[in-house]
UniProtKB/TrEMBL annotation, chain A:
Gene3D superfamilies: MetI-like. The chain crosses the membrane at residues 24-48, 82-103, 115-135, 141-160, 237-255. It is found in: Cell membrane. PANTHER family: ABC TRANSPORTER PERMEASE PROTEIN MJ0413-RELATED (PTHR30151:SF0), ALKANE SULFONATE ABC TRANSPORTER-RELATED, MEMBRANE SUBUNIT (PTHR30151). InterPro entries: MetI-like, MetI-like_sf. It comes from Actinomadura macrotermitis. It comes from the Bacteria. GO terms for biological process: transmembrane transport. This is Putative aliphatic sulfonates transport permease protein SsuC. SUPFAM superfamilies: MetI-like. Pfam families: BPD_transp_1 (PF00528).
Automatic annotation (TrEMBL), chain B:
This is Aliphatic sulfonates import ATP-binding protein SsuB. Keywords: ATP-binding, Hydrolase, Nucleotide-binding, Transport. Residues 5-238 form the ABC transporter domain. The keyword Hydrolase applies.
């Protein structure tokens, strides 16, 4: 073996991993297919007349609501609720997941409890939350935080539990104390799992939020859908649906970008 | 010479289904400061258990493990470990791996000296140009160099190496032995090396401790009288070959004795 002095070459792009223009192209093509299929379904009359609007009708409705009816406010309100809920829930999930994975008595005592609460769909708690918190922002955000927490805590727990003990041993042999092991080994190793947890929590929270807004809210994308539905304004229902999907997609892409940055050190397959 | 690490009549069993499995049945030897000692023995004889007790990962059932005269109670920064598996931290660059121990509260080396120390070991271990590489970009041999540098950097008095080159190919292995030999010429730390390679033990050590099969005790302690520095030619010298033949025969005899002993038949 020779002593190599040259720095390692930049890793070549992996085969099959398109760079961003190609990525964007493929992604757009996927949506174009969806829109084409939508027009197809409309033209073939697969759905009774008047119940399936054309995509351009939806676009017009979106424009009308954007300019005249404060759609942006609804969007902002929903996004804020989701972001705060997920941030609270998943931030609390990190210490909780760590404690569950690290200390056997904690796991034995609280593991089943987590399983119990995790099984309850957050929507089922809406009536109770209304009883205790009323129908204000606290009520909605606490439901979202609940949903995000129980999704994340399992992922964080698994992430911490699957850390190779050799790294912990190595850190201890270098003199690391328990807090140092946590900060310098456990945290960096859990970051990738944590971001996965946040991605999953975001998905669950959007679903929960819309359901919560359908029931009890005046503003927000769920309320937009509900109100439009009450008046049989089908294009407006589609506006709400498309917007929710679009915002969730953007958030997911942002998180994926953060993940790529935070997990540069990892070997991974399948982008 | 004062003692760096000592085993005093150490015994250790592991609990298995259906009873106790005695692993170490009376280890009694010590390493003087600055001494390089290899522990050699048939596989499964509990060599790594000895190292784990010296590191503080495991405790003896009876007897004592003393580091600098004081009983070992847990792992700490005065006894560095190089593991057989690649235990370099995958989330840190080469330089940050080497600096890991320096940055811990226990180390006590002032912060403004860290960069120079890291730089020194980068040079000694032939890692220049790889300072900012992540372990995934390195070969097995390079990763093990990082692991060795990381263990030396905070300046532990004792280094415990658990078959550090076992996973490497033969050529890399030899060059790593020479690298470790050269580092020891300048660093002169106390090293306890666990290995199953007679050649590796002879090339690097002042003395070789030969263990019997499980439940194992010290069979023989063989001084290697060959002066340092040693070179690749040393491996071909009559003295080296003679010692090598003697140790190989000793190990063969121990394995044969194990094979002919019924499993439960422990000599009283």
């Amino acid at each position: 073996m020779t002593t190599v002095t040259a720095p390692p070459a930049e890793a070549p792009p992996r085969r099959g991993a398109p760079e961003w223009p190609a990525r964007l192209g493929y992604g757009t093509a996927g949506f174009a297919l969806l829109v084409a299929g939508w027009y197809g379904a409309y033209l073939l009359g697969l759905v009774a007349d008047g119940l399936l609007p054309r995509p351009d009708e939806v676009a017009v409705a979106a424009w009308r609501r954007l300019t005249g009816q404060g759609l942006l406010t609804d969007l902002r309100i929903s996004v804020t609720r989701v972001v705060i809920g997920v941030a609270l829930g998943s931030a609390l999930a990190v210490p909780a997941g760590f404690l569950l994975a690290w200390y056997r008595p904690v796991r034995l005592m609280f593991g089943p409890l987590v399983g119990f609460f995790r099984a309850l769909p957050p929507i089922a708690l809406v009536p109770l939350v209304i009883v205790y918190f009323g129908i204000g922002e606290t009520a909605r955000i606490s439901i979202l935080a609940y949903a995000a927490f129980f999704v994340s805590v399992v992922v964080v727990h698994e992430g911490v539990a699957s850390i190779e003990p050799i790294y912990i041993k190595a850190a201890r042999s270098l003199g690391a104390t328990e807090p140092e092991v946590f900060r310098r080994c456990v945290l960096p190793l859990v970051v990738p799992q944590f971001l996965v947890a946040v991605r999953v929590a975001l998905g669950v929270s959007w679903a929960t939020l819309v359901a919560a807004e359908l029931v009890a809210a005046h503003r927000g994308l769920g309320a937009v859908i509900q109100n439009a539905g009450d008046f049989m304004r089908v294009p407006d229902v589609y506006v709400g649906i498309v917007l929710i999907g679009a915002v969730a997609l953007v958030m997911d892409q942002l998180l994926k970008a953060a993940m790529g940055r935070a997990t540069r050190w990892q070997e991974r397959t399948g982008g | 010479m004062s003692e760096a690490i000592g085993f005093r009549n150490v015994r250790k069993s592991f609990r298995r289904r259906g009873g106790e499995l005695p692993v170490i049945d009376g280890a009694d030897f010590a390493l003087a400061r600055g001494e390089f000692v290899s522990v050699l023995g048939p596989s499964g004889c509990g060599k790594s258990t000895l190292l784990n007790m010296a590191a503080g990962f495991e405790t003896a059932d009876s007897g004592e493990v003393l580091a600098g005269g004081a009983p070992v109670t847990g792992p700490d920064h005065t006894r560095g470990v190089v593991f057989q598996q690649y235990a370099v931290f995958p989330w840190l660059t080469v330089a940050d791996n080497i600096a890991f121990g320096l940055r811990l509260a226990a180390c006590g080396i002032p912060r403004d000296r860290h960069a120079a120390i890291v730089e020194r070991y980068i040079g000694l271990m032939g890692l220049r140009g790889f300072e900012n590489a992540y372990p995934k970009e390195l070969s097995g041999g390079m990763r093990q160099r990082v692991a060795i540098a990381r263990a030396y950097a905070p300046g532990p008095e004792l280094l415990l190496m658990d078959e550090p080159f076992a996973a490497l190919d033969a050529q890399t292995r030899e060059s790593m032995q020479e690298l470790l030999h050269d580092i020891q010429l300048t660093e002169r730390r106390t090293v306890m090396l666990i290995t199953h390679s007679v050649e590796e033990a002879l090339f690097l050590s002042h003395r070789v401790v030969v263990m019997t099969p499980r439940p194992s005790r010290v069979s023989e302690i063989v001084p290697v009288g060959i002066p340092f520095p040693r070179t690749p030619e040393t491996r071909l010298s009559p003295e080296f070959i003679g010692l090598r033949r003697r140790l190989e025969e000793l190990l063969r005899g121990l394995s044969a004795a194990q094979a002919s002993t019924p499993k439960e038949g422990r000599a009283a």
